[in-house]
Amino acid sequence: GAVVSQHPSWVICKSGTSVKIECRSLDFQATTMFWYRQFPKQSLMLMATSNEGSKATYEQGVEKDKFLINHASLTLSTLTVTSAHPEDSSFYICSAPFGETQYFGPGTRLLVL
Amino acid sequence: RKEVEQDPGPFNVPEGATVAFNCTYSNSASQSFFWYRQDCRKEPKLLMSVYSSGNEDGRFTAQLNRASQYISLLIRDSKLSDSATYLCVVKQDGGSQGNLIFGKGTKLSVKP
Question: Which phi-psi region, left, alpha or beta, contains residue B69 (left: φ > 0; alpha: ψ -120 to 50)?
Fold first, then answer.
């Protein structure tokens, strides 16, 4: 199967700082990548669709100015959580489509103090 | 009504047992269906796709009933390593770019 990496795997930061998360497709190209968020005991919720060479598409209720997405190349998408607050603490997971479905990165656990 | 609904469990079963999970989806235009497995504090991993004709992969059998908008997963001869949360996933658009809709998952715990 396809391999998707994510970095960092976990982050602890102070409230008000910005956190950047990278998502890479290691052995295939992805013109589209997806960013999800999962709170404890909840299902994965799609935040936005990252598109190489164009603007990201955000789901309803997700602030585009707070969650900045840049799809710099066919193998890299970044999510920046700007001015993070404790309520942004969550498990952030990216995925990239390959074949008939999507493959997920290992996720980034963010804790904002 | 939620888009993808699953019984959250937990299902606590002994090793060797057969266990079945069910899932319903609300959008009749859904195109593709999958079961993913998610271990605690890990990312989801594709377990198997689900086809109308039913499909089997070793101890795992998946079934799809489009008329009833119902998906199932059967695990035979449960192993301790099968303990995880099983996510029912529906893709609404055709092609690889479509958005995945996740159920909340059904937790399985296999005991010795």
Answer: left
Give how far B96 is from chain A: nearest CA, Å.
5
The answer on pLDDT for B30 being more than 60 is: yes
Burial class (CB in 10 A: 0-12, 13-18, 19+), A4: buried
Distance CA A17, CA A86 (A): 11
Backbone angles phi, psi at B57, to 5 degrees: -140, 95
Using the Cα atoms of residue A31, residue A100, residue A104 and residue B107 in order, give the sign of their dihedral. positive
Contacts within 8 Å (CB) and 24+ apart, A43-46: A43/B4, A43/B87, A43/B102, A43/B103, A43/B104, A43/B105, A44/A93, A44/B44, A44/B87, A44/B102, A45/B102, A46/B99, A46/B100
Residue pLDDT, tens place only, A30-70: 999 999 999 988 888 899 999 998 899 999 999 999 999 99
- Report yes or no: B40 at the A interface, CB cutoff 8 Å: no
Q: How far is A16 from chain B (nearest CA, A)?
A: 25
| B67 to B5, B26, B64, B72: CA distances (angstroms) | 16, 11, 9, 14
Average pLDDT estimate for B7-24:
95
Note whether A2 contacts B: Cβ–Cβ < 8 A.
Answer: no
What percentage of residues in chain A have a pLDDT greater than 70? 99
Residues B14 and B109 sit within 8 Å (Cβ to Cβ): no
